[in-house]
Amino acid sequence: MVILCIVSGGWFLFKNKSQSASSANETTTESADAKISSNTTNGSTTAQNSNSNDTSNNASDKLSSDIGPKETAAAIAYYADKSGLDGWKDYLKGNNGITIILSSAHASMVSDIGQGMLYGVLNEQLNVNGVTKNIYTLDEDDTVNIYHLSDENSSDNPATPIKSVSKDEIIQYINDHGYASDVKKLGSRVTLDQESY
């Protein structure tokens, strides 16, 4: 009798676990199916997997256009570095954060002074003397003018931008290339320094 109770109890537990596993399998399958969506663009259809392990499509890993000054500085520096602009390529390599030196005293050293403020991007790992040649200015319409100064640049021979690009284009580049989380990390390690250089 005891053996019969143990056997029937074991069968009952086995059957319930089997049904529970089957139900969990169906839920997992439904969940996986729900995470696969299709996007139609210009008549072509592509499957997009939004698996929780895939963070490239996660909205929290994207920059928005209303980022603050530190993330803006980080985005501009990251854009200039990763897009390989002259004097900027690999500039952020091995940094522990960057310092943005704000200066209006030397605005005449550049041809497009924006709103009158120069933003010098200083990577203290590379610029041990505290001087940087990588700067940018911001226009009122959020156009970013990116420079790499040379020793010949002065108020008599102002530098011209390597590139002028809108802040929105920079953010789009960062998001398209999956750099948003790196920019956010760098943004948290930006120091703003209002000094003359």
Descriptive notes:
The longest helix has 34 residues, at 2-35. The strands form two sheets. The chain has a six-stranded mixed sheet. The protein has a two-stranded antiparallel ribbon with strand order 1-2. Residues 1-57 have low confidence and may be disordered. The chain is 34% helix and 21% strand. Helix 2 (69-82) crosses helix 3 and helix 2 packs across helix 4 (180-187). It contains four helices and eight strands; from the N terminus they run αββαβββββααβ. It has helices at residues 2-35, 69-82, 167-176, 180-187; strands spanning 36-41, 44-49, 98-103, 118-122, 134-138, 143-148, 163-166, 190-193. The protein starts with a helix and ends with a strand. It has two domains: 2-49; 62-193, Yope Regulator, Chain: A, CATH 3.30.1460. It is an alpha+beta fold and 197 residues long. The radius of gyration is 27 Å and the shape is globular.
Task: State the total count of DSSP E strands.
Answer: 8
Helix content: 25-40%
The succession of helices and strands, N to C, reads HEEHEEEEEHHE
Strand content: 15-25%
What is the 3D shape? globular
User: What is the CATH-assigned architecture of the largest domain?
Assistant: 2-Layer Sandwich
- Assembly state: single chain
Mean pLDDT: 76
CATH-defined fold name of the largest domain? Yope Regulator, Chain: A
Low-confidence stretches: 1-57
Please give the count of helices.
4
Q: Supply Rg.
A: 27 Å
Number of domains: 2
